[in-house]
């Protein structure tokens, strides 16, 4: 489901609108065509998945569904700007730290840089690339004051296009 909504919707013959929404029936048809565990998937299954998901990556509204964040699609998904907490966190690898110091945080293969509201989640995300990741603290209040825009991904994730290193501290 994430692959269809976040990364390659065209492979499933889905067309996301400018906010990333697609009719749920179209997604269900595309998933059923994949066969296997998806052959009998229905709305109730999707609702149960979304209700039990810890990371709240997807959102259902009426007869539409979308991924809230994490897109790597070439067409940007437009999100509304929001006011983040004053401090956010980002977990990263030791190998990436030198580049981040020089270039700041960039989205890499995604549409946005992902930031966490809590250090534990940021550290967990950083472990995907490094068994002992570095924890960066983001001065989001200063970044907003300097004109940077943030978007709420979910209760624990905030997104921004990029962030200069001047708003980052180690630890």
Overall description:
- Its EC number is 2.7.1.-.
- One of its GO terms (molecular function) is tRNA 2'-phosphotransferase activity.
- Removes the 2'-phosphate from RNA via an intermediate in which the phosphate is ADP-ribosylated by NAD followed by a presumed transesterification to release the RNA and generate ADP-ribose 1''-2''-cyclic phosphate (APPR>P). May function as an ADP-ribosylase.
- It comes from Propioniciclava coleopterorum.
- Keywords: NAD, Transferase.
- With 171 residues, the chain is α+β, with helices and mostly antiparallel strands.
- The chain folds into two domains: 2-67, Arc Repressor Mutant, subunit A (Orthogonal Bundle), CATH 1.10.10.970; 81-170, ADP-ribosylation fold.
- Helices cover 30% and strands 22% of the residues.
- It contains six helices and ten strands, in the order αβααββββαβαβαβββ.
- The protein has helices spanning 2-7, 24-34, 43-52, 94-103, 119-126, 140-145; strands spanning 22-23, 58-61, 64-67, 81-82, 87-92, 113-116, 134-139, 150-152, 157-160, 168-170.
- The strands form three sheets. The protein has a four-stranded antiparallel sheet with strand order 4-8-9-6.
- The radius of gyration is 17 Å and the shape is elongated.
- The N and C termini lie far apart (35 Å).
- The mean pLDDT is 89.
